[in-house]
Amino acid sequence: MVMKAEDWDDVETIKHEIMKQLKNLTSEDFQGYLEQLKQRWNKFYNQKKMPEKVMLSSNVFDDSDFVTVQNKSKRKKKTDVSSKRRKLNAPTAEELNELREAETLFQSNLLKMEIEELMKELKEHMPEKEKINLWLQSFKDFLRNIPDTSPVSIEDLILENDVKIPIIQVPKNTKGNFKFVPPSNIKDIGSFALGTMCSSEPVIDVAVEIPKTCWSGMDFLNHRYHRKRALYLAYIASSLLENDLISDLQYSYQNENYLKPVLLVIPKDFKNVKVCLTAYPSTNYFKLSRFVPSKNNVRSSWYFENSEDVDHSALESSATPHYNASALSDILLPDLNDYLKEKLHTQTLKDGIILLKLWCIQRGLCDGFGRLNGFILSMFVAYLLKKQKITPLMSAYQVFRSALLGFQNENWYEQGITLCDEAASADLQKELDLETFKTHYKVVFVDASGYFNMCYYVTKQTFLMVQHEAKLGLKILAKESPESFSLLFMNKITVNRKYEYLLHLKGPKKFKKYLQKLLSKDILQKEKLDFGENIMASLFPKVCDVLKKGLNNRISLIDVIKPSRTPWSVTDSPPNPNQGQVSLGFLLNPEVSFNNIEKGPVADDPKSKEFRDFWGERSELRRFQDGTIREAVYWPAATAAERRKVFSCIVTDILTRHIKADQSHIVVNGSEVDCILEVPDMILSSDFPPYGTGEEAHMVVMQSFNALCKQLRNLNGLPLLIASIQGVSPSFRFSEVFPPLSVIHENDPKTTYVDGHVLKLHEGGVGVPPYTPALEAIITLEGSGKWPDDVEALKRIKAEFHMEIAKLVTSQFSLMAIPFITHTDIFKDGFVFRVEVACHKEIFLLKQVKMADGTLKIQENQQSRNLEILTEILPKLNSILHGLHQQHNTFGTACRLAKRWISAQLKHGLMHDTAIELLVASLYIHPEPYSCPCSPQVAFIRFLNLLVTYDWATAPLIINLNNELKKEDIEEIYSTFTSQRSTLPPMVIATPYDKRGSMWTKNRPVALILKRIAILAEASLKTLDSILNKSLISDIKAIFRPPLESYDVIIHLKRSEVPRLRCAVDVYTSDKLPVYEPYKQDRNELYPVVEYDPVQMYFEELRENFGEFAFFLHDMYGGDFIAVVWKRSAFIPKEFKVSAVNYRTLYTDGIRLIPDVERILEDMQILGSGIVKKIVKQTENWQIP
To answer: N or C: where does the chain have the smaller number of CB atoms within 10 Å of the terminal CB?
Structure first.
């Protein structure tokens, strides 16, 4: 619908109307509307006075550009917008139909526009058809004019220009002669010819037909067909090498099959364009019946030559289905291509295939060993068309969605699917039915001829992963979110963010030994006949089967990851198909993945013997709580951290037991970053419970807190009953980086002394006591109308409650309690719980403002807002996040890893801890495009990725806690964000309790810090990827050590004065740390020094005293230095003023002032006396103007 921008009188009206109408704007009218809008804007700019701050962009979707216009004249009073509303033409019936069609065919107008823009962008990457067709014609003419050669033995053929034959010739001896004759036909095939190309680097497929005169009657046997085909391509490469049409020639493997090389031709005049030249035999030369799956076309007498350890009579009848299919894929190539051209005749079908390809490419489902390809995806759309699951009238979106439904519902590995209506030959009906195909192949998709399984090389693991991704894709579409398009087509899925655990197998030379261990001699020989030198294709499906059997329901999916081989020069020998790193990715079942016991059958079950044979001496009989006696395998694990390592132990045990893999050749990645949450063993006494990574310590805190809550509710003597007690500290939601320990607090005479039962600090003490945090909780009392109407009086009543609670807790439960005006500290089980009485009325009273005329006005202020967050919002949020951890028991640990990384990068305090927890929560509540994380490490990696990739300038992060936000609420959040973006903070996190999204990010992080955090996260991700993607053991703590070169001054602290030194990234044996004893109730127990951290106090004093000159950065978890960055603006010479003399000195001109760096540093040293070890000036980073 074309909309006129008439009668718009001010900027705010224009902006409001743009955003209001975007949803109903069709793509056809978009450009015209935009031009009209620009003209109206220019007219408005010339006629009206601009406001001081205007959001202006050439693209109406981009609200990140802010232009400030200084207006020297006075602003005129804004005209009444409501009196001059813009006039809209009534939509025509045709326009209304277009809107309805967009909703029906594309789910939404926005999605329709995004898909159309995508198609337009993809077409821009395509080479100009006229130019490329001219080049192709010249290329084809050259191929047709290559001179014939006389016959020569295959074994004796040597090519000119040092061109190598792109096939591994094992065995070497091959009967037959090779004669080159120019191709009898040259066909344009593949996605370029079909119009379904989906790549920024186009690959144009061209197939040459090898004439009949090049073949002999028995070439289907013993790799002769494949070797002649490779020789044919090699001869063409030799002829092309010095041709002016090309800039380079390379070989590559088709579908990672070493018997199927292709020639990659890089044209001279086209950037990023490749021509993939393949070859197929002359039509009808080979009988299709020779290649049915049950036939043998590789003779054992030829392949094993003179080996005496082979029973040739038994192997002669052994089927070679994969070898046969590899030949059929060429023989049927022109027919298959013609079939697709006939069926896929509408543009919407082609666009749907492009979307499907892009979806697969972004998920790594079309690259590497055993993967799908564009041809199979196109054939599947043709299959759905044949089965009437889609129609040519459908939109591209509907075709794509139907394909996902098809993947989800069609079972290619158990039933199989086919395009063939009936067997081509009655004699071969049994050999060509789906049951026969299923016995020979893992995944079955038969072509229209009925002879060829188009998925002959696709692994079962790949198809299961396709089904898994299809289910996730349908869930994304069902949510109808504005991010659906980017989640499906723009976000690249990487293995480190997708899989909870990755197994890397070193040493491809060992693969043959592994296969010999897995298979008997007879079966191994049959596999060799079928797969030849491609040991991977035979080995890894069987390794997956063994791992699946051992891991049982611990995993939901397993995947083999081996990227496609890089093309090689035509003058180089072909690479071994088994070389390169092979990895296996595991998606875990969250319910049982970390169990440290594997239950087997009951003792008298016949299957128990199979279980014992599989696990060997590890299997033992155990009695369980339900009374059954079962075979079981047990892995010792006392903590959650150890249970996460059990998975690696199981995988290692299975591989060493069943394929005799050396442990040094097995690397399982999945819990490496856990080490950053560990504490040194030397601080815990021998009888202290295992700490692990702190999950058990959190449980102890919760148990103690629940017991205290029960005691507080049972208090007798309070004027009002306690209605609820809700914790607000991170420990109560399992997200405290280093939770407090239940320990005995002892007196150190050098640091503290005892006053009654309370430890107090010596004035001139040496060292610091261990840091003891206060665990905060909010007490809500039953309702009462007797609370005073004065804020100060109400605070005094609360103070009386705190004193009374302390008194009653001491008298009734013998707990030490110290009352304060604002709270009461209670000592229990070695912890200090800080309880505060909350009264809702206090928030209301704080909002009251007395006007000049004596009336009261309700106005929100910072004090009331802070109290509301502490006493009302935070308890609710704590409860929800606690529940999220109960649902996903890795959530808390993932939050701790994220907060530890932020602090280690010296950004603690520059981003609110609660904001970090909400970011991590979003990964569990809205995990798309991944499944929900089942390990802390993968959640942490996704957290870093979120920091790097999320576009905070253009979209809020909406976290739908408890699904409380409805569709209308989400639309309102987006609308508010768009209309008020200039007034919102750089990071907007919207929740049901904060729809504006600024509660936790209003003042921090600022835009500069947010950008810096994203840069650090990107660097950490690269380091993690380099470590986790390789079968090497590296120091994972490198991502938690910040680079110090960019800082101007480093204040080094005495490690003995750092109270949280046990939490440091690096703890040394020379560090003097206290040894903790587990808590035991004692009459003489001591109340500890609470929340005493001199380093943090010094850090805050630096910010307070010198904040106008520098930024101060510190790792609060055991950091032994403070980094200083001078503010460049502070070093600009200023006019002399008495008020500005402090910490400044005269500039060289003797008139203006600049900061006195030496004096500032000297005072920093004095201020940190006893804490500061030395101050290092890195003057190469800065200089005084």
So the answer is: C
> Which residue type does 697 have?
A
* Residues in Cβ contact with 660 at an 8 Å cutoff, skipping those fewer than 6 apart: 513, 514, 517
| Cα angle 628-634-636, degrees, rounded to a multiple of 5 | 135
Confidence of residue 87 (pLDDT cuts 50, 70, 90): very low
Nearest to 1001 by CA among 1052, 962, 957: 957
With beta carbons less than 8 A apart as the criterion, state whether 1110 and 1126 touch: yes
Query: Would 346-493 and 1045-1177 be classified into the same CATH topology?
Result: no
Close Cβ partners of 1090 (under 8 Å, ≥ 6 residues apart): 772, 773, 774, 825, 832
C-alpha distance across the termini of the chain, in Å: 59
Structural domain boundaries of the chain? 126-313+323-344, 346-493, 496-596+635-671, 1045-1177
Q: Which residue has the tokens 């309370």?
A: 758
Pairing of the two strands 274-281 and 203-210: parallel
Looking only at the bridges linking them, the beta strands covering 774-781 and 722-727 are: antiparallel
**Cis geometry, peptide bond prior to residue 929 (ω within 30 degrees of 0):** yes
CA-closest candidate to residue 350, choices 204, 485, 191, 114: 191
Report pLDDT digits (tens) over 365-401.
Answer: 998 899 999 999 999 999 999 999 999 989 899 999 9
> Residue 766: CB partners within 8 Å, gap ≥ 6?
750, 751
Our measurement of the distance from residue 1103's CA atom to the centroid of its chain's CA atoms, rounded to an integer in Å, reads 36
The angle subtended at Cα 951 by Cα 950 and Cα 957, nearest 5°, is 65
Point out the least confidently predicted range of 214-218, 231-235, 576-580. Answer: 576-580
Tokens representing 779 are 């007490």
> What CATH number should be reported for the domain whose range is 346-493?
1.10.1410.10
Handedness of CA 725, 726, 728, 731 (dihedral sign): positive
- What burial letters (b/e) apply to 1043-1076, b meaning 16+ CB within 10 Å? eeeebbbebebbbebbbbbbbbbebeeebebeeb
In the chain, the largest separation of any two C-alpha atoms, in whole Å, equals 112
Task: Give the model's confidence band at 110: pLDDT under 50 very low, under 70 low, under 90 confident, else very high.
Answer: confident
Token digits for 615? 């696990």
pLDDT in tens, 971-1030: 999 999 999 999 999 999 999 999 999 999 999 899 999 999 999 999 999 999 988 887
CATH architecture observed for domain 1045-1177: 2-Layer Sandwich (3.30)
Please name the helix (run of DSSP H) or strand (run of DSSP E) that holds residue 840, with its range, or none: helix 840-847
Position of tokens 């680097």? Answer: 201
In this structure, what token pair is assigned to residue 296?
Answer: 């043998």
Residue 455's pLDDT is 95
The residue among 217, 143, 137, 140 whose CA lies nearest residue 180 is: 143
Quick one: angle between helices 347-362 and 460-479, nearest 10? 110
Q: Tokens for 1169, please give them.
A: 């006396």
Nearest to 901 by CA among 942, 940, 933: 940
Q: How confident is the model at residue 563 (pLDDT cuts 50, 70, 90)?
A: confident
* Interacting residues of 895 by C-beta distance below 8 A, sequence separation 6+: 730, 734, 735, 916, 917, 920
Segment holding 514, helix H or strand E: helix 511-518
Letter for the amino acid at 843?
I
Question: What CA–CA distance (Å, rounded) separates 95 from 410?
Answer: 39
Task: Compute how many other C-beta atoms are within 10 angstroms of the C-beta atom of residue 26.
Answer: 18
| CA dihedral of residues 235, 241, 247, 250 (deg, nearest 10) | 40
For residues 821 and 836, what is the distance between their CA atoms, to the nearest angstrom?
10
pLDDT of residue 98: 59
Q: CA angle, corner 338, sides to 336 and 340, nearest 5? A: 70
Q: Do 780 and 722 meet the contact criterion of CB atoms below 8 Å apart?
A: yes
- The chain-wide mean pLDDT, for the chain, equals 87
Q: Per CATH, the architecture of 496-596+635-671 is what?
A: 2-Layer Sandwich (3.30)
Between vectors from CA 1121 to CA 1119 and to CA 1123, what angle results, nearest 5°? Answer: 115
Decide if 1089 contacts 771 (C-beta within 8 A): no
